[in-house]
Design a protein that fits this description.
Order of helices and strands: EEEHHHEEHEEEEEHEEHHHHHHHHEE
Radius of gyration: 30 Å
Number of domains: 3
Oligomer: single chain
Number of helices: 13
Structural class: alpha+beta
Low-confidence stretches: 1-11, 469-495
C-alpha cells in the first residue's frame, strides 16, 4: 500500500488537498481510495452557492434576494450533485496525472452510489487498469533475417487469371471437381452425437482449406477433389479456440458436405473492352505492370510483417510481464482491425481481407496477449526515443489507403474519424516507425523466399458459424488507449 498527498500549486483554481491510497491486487490493476477533506468539500460548496445565490429564485422573494440559508436548503440536492461531479472530475484528474501509475482505461466506479456527506470527509474508491511495468529490452544491434520476394511472370499471370475468373461464366457440369472450381454445397455439423447446425446452400471455391467464422476444414481440398454433383463427403472441422461455446473449443466435429452442383468457369479473353472495364487499361502490358506493382506491395507487406515478427520475438523473449485481463478481452478484435488497416494500405482487395478476417478469428483470442505485449514494448521504446506521428504521416497513410481502395481521401479520413480509427492509425504509424528505427540499427541479412505454387490462395473463407449460437457482433473500434469505450463497435465494410 502506498500513500501520497497532492499539494496546492500556483494555479487559477487551487488543486484539491486530497489523500490517495493505492493497492495492487494484480500487476496491472490498481484499487484506489480517494479522501477529500471536509474543508475542501466546504470550499467547493461555498463556490457553488456563491454563484447560485445572486440568481436564485425562491417563492416570496425577488430574484437573488432570498436569504442564503433558505437558498442552501431549497437547492441542497441540486448543488450537492453539481459539487459531487466537480470534485470527482477534479480529483480524478489529479490522481490519474500522478506518477503512481500509468492508466490505460477509465476509472471503474458506481457514480450513483457516491454521495456528498453532510459532515466529515468525502471518500470514494475506484479500480483502474494500468500499463504493465517492465525493463525496456535492448533493441540496438539485433541480428535480423529479412525475407525478400521476387515476383515472377507466372505469379503475375496467375493473378490476372484470378481476376479474369470473376468475369467468366459459371456452368454446371457432371465432370469431377478440381481445385479452383466452384461448389454449391450444403453441410451438417455434428458433435457429441448430435447435430449442432445445418448450413443451407453455400457457393464456395474449392481450395485446400475452407474456413468458417468459428472453425476450419483444413483438408477440404483433399476431401472434395473429384466429387461430382449429388455426391456426399464426410470430413472433420476443427473449432476455433475463441469460439463462443467453450465446451467445443479446439475439438474436431464431424462435417457432412453434400454437393448440389459443381460449377466450372469459362475464362474470358483479354479484349480491349474488358481491359477498359478492369481499369481503363490501354494494353495488356499496362495491366501486367499494374498487377506486378500490386503483387510487389503485397510482398512488401509480407516482408514487413516477417521482419516485425522477428523483431518482436527478439524483444519479447524475456518480456514475461502480466497483462490487464479486461484489456485482453477488449483488445481481441481491435488488433484485428489494426491489421485490416495495414492490409488495405498494402493493396489487398476486400475478398482477401475477408479471408484473413475469418482465418484470424480462429485464433484471435490466443494471439491477443502476444499483440498487446508487442504494443506495450513498441510503445515504451517510442516514448523513450520520442517517436510520434505528425500531420504529414497521417496525410501519407490516408492518401495510400485512398489510392488502394479507390475512395477519395476526404471520405477515407471522414470514415476513420467517424469510426474512431484515428487512434489505431496513430498506433500503426508509430509502431512502424519504431520497427524501422530498430531495423536501421540492426544487422540485417536478406534471404530469398522459396514459394510453393498456389500458396497465396490456399484458403477460402465463408461467414458461417458451425456452432449453433452465432456471434453477429461487429469488430470493435481499433483503439488501444484509455479513451476507448468498452462497447465501441465499427463497420468493416467499404463505404
Amino acid at each position: 500500500m502506498s500513500t501520497s498527498t497532492a499539494a496546492a500549486g500556483e494555479q487559477e483554481k487551487a488543486p484539491i488537498q486530497l489523500e490517495i491510497k493505492v493497492e495492487s491486487p494484480q500487476a496491472c490493476l490498481r484499487e484506489v481510495v480517494v479522501t477529500i477533506p471536509q474543508a475542501e468539500v466546504h470550499r467547493y460548496l461555498k463556490e457553488a452557492y456563491d454563484e447560485l445565490v445572486p440568481e436564485a429564485q425562491v417563492p416570496g422573494f425577488r430574484s437573488g434576494r432570498a436569504p442564503r440559508k433558505l437558498v442552501e436548503k431549497q437547492f441542497k440536492e441540486r448543488v450537492h450533485e453539481q459539487v459531487k461531479g466537480s470534485l470527482l472530475m477534479d480529483s480524478l484528474s489529479q490522481v490519474t496525472d500522478s506518477e503512481e501509475f500509468s492508466a490505460i482505461g477509465e476509472p471503474d466506479f458506481d457514480y450513483n452510489s457516491i454521495k456528498i456527506p453532510d459532515s466529515g470527509d468525502f471518500k470514494y474508491q475506484f479500480r483502474i487498469e494500468v500499463r504493465p511495468e517492465f525493463d525496456t529490452p535492448d533493441w540496438k544491434g539485433l541480428k535480423i533475417a529479412k525475407p525478400v520476394e521476387e515476383i515472377s511472370d507466372d505469379e503475375v499471370q496467375a493473378a490476372i487469371d484470378r481476376v479474369l475468373a470473376k468475369y467468366g461464366t459459371l456452368e454446371a457440369t457432371d465432370a469431377p471437381a478440381e481445385l479452383g472450381d466452384r461448389l454449391l454445397i450444403t453441410a451438417t455439423f455434428k458433435g457429441d452425437g448430435k447435430t449442432l447446425s445445418e448450413m443451407d446452400e453455400e457457393n464456395v471455391t474449392l481450395e485446400q482449406s475452407l474456413s468458417f467464422s468459428d472453425a476450419v476444414c483444413s483438408d477440404f481440398g483433399d476431401l472434395m477433389v473429384g466429387v461430382k454433383e449429388g455426391e456426399t463427403r464426410k470430413g472433420k472441422v476443427t473449432v476455433a479456440e475463441g469460439a463462443a461455446q467453450e465446451e467445443y473449443r479446439g475439438k474436431e466435429l464431424e462435417a457432412v458436405f453434400h454437393v448440389v452442383e459443381v460449377l466450372k468457369r469459362d475464362q474470358p479473353k483479354l479484349t480491349p473492352a474488358l481491359l477498359e472495364e478492369l481499369g481503363d487499361f490501354e494494353s495488356e502490358e499496362e495491366l501486367r505492370d499494374f498487377v506486378r506493382e500490386s503483387l510487389s506491395r503485397q510482398a512488401d507487406y509480407r516482408t514487413q510483417q516477417a521482419v516485425r515478427k522477428t523483431v518482436i520475438e527478439l524483444l519479447a523473449g524475456n518480456a514475461d510481464f502480466e497483462l490487464p485481463e479486461t484489456l485482453v478481452k477488449r483488445q481481441t478484435y481491435r488488433e484485428l482491425e489494426r491489421q485490416i488497416l495495414e492490409l488495405r494500405r498494402s493493396g489487398f482487395d476486400e475478398d482477401m481481407i475477408r479471408r484473413f478476417v475469418n482465418a484470424s478469428k480462429q485464433n484471435a483470442q490466443a494471439s491477443t496477449e502476444a499483440a498487446l505485449r508487442e504494443h506495450f514494448i513498441l510503445e515504451k521504446i517510442a516514448e523513450e526515443e520520442k517517436v510520434d506521428a505528425d500531420d504529414a504521416d497521417y496525410d501519407a497513410e490516408i492518401a495510400l489507403i485512398a489510392q488502394q481502395s479507390d475512395v477519395p481521401e476526404r471520405r477515407v479520413r471522414a470514415r476513420l474519424e467517424k469510426q474512431g480509427q484515428m487512434d489505431a492509425l496513430r498506433n500503426q504509424i508509430i509502431e512502424r516507425k519504431v520497427i524501422e528505427m530498430i531495423v536501421d540499427a540492426a544487422k540485417v541479412t536478406e534471404e530469398p523466399v522459396e514459394k510453393k505454387s498456389g500458396e497465396e490462395d490456399s484458403e477460402f473463407a465463408i461467414d458461417y458459424s458451425v456452432l449453433a449460437s452465432r456471434d453477429d457482433e461487429s469488430i470493435p473500434e481499433a483503439k488501444y488507449e484509455d479513451n476507448t469505450p468498452a462497447n465501441a463497435q465499427n463497420e468493416t465494410e467499404k463505404d
